[in-house]
Amino acid sequence: MQKRCLWCLEAEPLVSFSKKAHTIPMSLGGQNYNNNVCDSCNEYFGVQKEGNIFSIEEALKETFNISRRRFLTGFQPKRQVGRFKSKFFEIKERKGKYRLVIKPSFKFNPIFQKNLCRSFKRGLYKMFFEELNRQEGEGFEEKYNFIRKFARYNELDFPVFYFQRSVGLIALTKREAETPFLMFGRMKYLYSDSIFVEIEFLGHVFGFPKQNFTLDDFQTYHTKSMELKTNFFSGMIPIEKLTDIDFTLTILND
Ligand SMILES: [Zn+2]
């Protein structure tokens, strides 16, 4: 059967499918790949950009690896294996609590936060969309065009919400931190309907629209989602900058 690309919608032989397209970056331990991603789209997500433009892979890797190392080593300095190294962030420790700060070389760059955050949000859509297609065979439908526009072509803007935990109870095995995967419905507190979807990845819960929505749709979603999360989460915030996200998982300290 002739293959067609999930992102650019082009088919063979106009585009080729010779490389493995990992849904979750290999640099994060991802092991699954999507067969419907053409080589040029695959390359687009991974290739390092110039200046203040960050690739999708870079944005995902530099952030989620912070949480991953927290799960695997607890940032303990004695454990060489998991020594923390990030291009953009530093971990500050005080009385056993960790805090994420932006490295001085990026701190005063006004577009750094904005651009990296946008690439990160597009990266969440990218992982979700490729996994949705891999796990459920969906994705070529027209209603998903906005995901293609945002994640692949850097057009439009869509919100991503972050759920702030109220208790440090995260169901994640060491093995899952080593080779993380993305789930839509495993935990009972994850809410989804025809418009909004929620994912859990490396201990973090995110929600976002999977098609166009009205303010009413959003209010309904917000109410229903928070009802499910009463005992675990204190609130949801739209992600504006990456330091809004508890990548160091300070909640695990309590
Ligand atoms: Zn393509």
Q: What does this protein look like?
A:
The chain is an alpha+beta fold and 254 residues long. It has one domain (26-253). Helices cover 33% and strands 14% of the residues. The protein has helices spanning 39-46, 56-73, 104-107, 110-136, 145-152, 174-178, 215-228; strands spanning 89-94, 97-102, 161-165, 196-201, 204-209, 233-238. The chain is globular. Zinc ion binds next to α1.
What is the typical, i.e. mean, pLDDT? 89
Q: Largest beta sheet: what is the strand line-up? A: 4-5-3-6
The share of residues in helices is 25-40%
The number of distinct helices, counting runs of at least 4 residues, comes to 7
> What is the 3D form?
globular
Distance between the termini: 54 Å
Count every beta strand, where a strand is a DSSP E run of 2 or more residues.
6
Hetero ligands? zinc ion
- Low-confidence parts, pLDDT < 50 over ≥5 residues? none
Main β-sheet description: 4 strands, antiparallel
Total domains: 1
The helix-and-strand class reads alpha+beta
Strand content: 5-15%
Please provide the ordered H/E string of secondary-structure elements: HHEEHHHEHEEHE
Rg on CA atoms, Å: 18 Å
